[in-house]
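step=encode ok
step=design start
structure_in=
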């Protein structure tokens, strides 16, 4: 199986992680559920880092990952969540070398 992996780390403003999570739940969660090109998506809230959100995304292709960034839902999300973030996210993107079938 070929796939494309994306690893994202968001840093929120102090004490604003729950507000950022609420925006994600309202806008992104339904968009991700509806997107057939998301093969997997893991959204995490590390206990030891109260102002950090990490996400792992697995897409069919790099083009699918890039296309998702242009959807109305993603653009709406970035605008709505920005006030809760302490800068842009750190993003690492790479072809997946192996995926458990």
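sequence_out=
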């Amino acid at each position: 199986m070929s796939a494309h992996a994306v690893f994202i780390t968001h840093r929120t403003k102090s004490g604003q992680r729950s507000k950022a999570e609420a925006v994600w739940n309202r806008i992104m969660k339904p968009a991700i559920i509806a997107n057939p090109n998301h093969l997997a998506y893991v959204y995490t809230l590390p206990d030891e880092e109260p102002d950090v959100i990490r996400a792992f995304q697995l897409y069919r292709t790099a083009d699918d990952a890039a296309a998702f960034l242009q959807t109305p839902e993603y653009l709406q999300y970035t605008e709505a969540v920005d006030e809760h973030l302490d800068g842009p996210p750190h993003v690492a993107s790479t072809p997946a070398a192996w995926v458990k079938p």
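step=design ok
step=annotate ok -> The radius of gyration is 14 Å.
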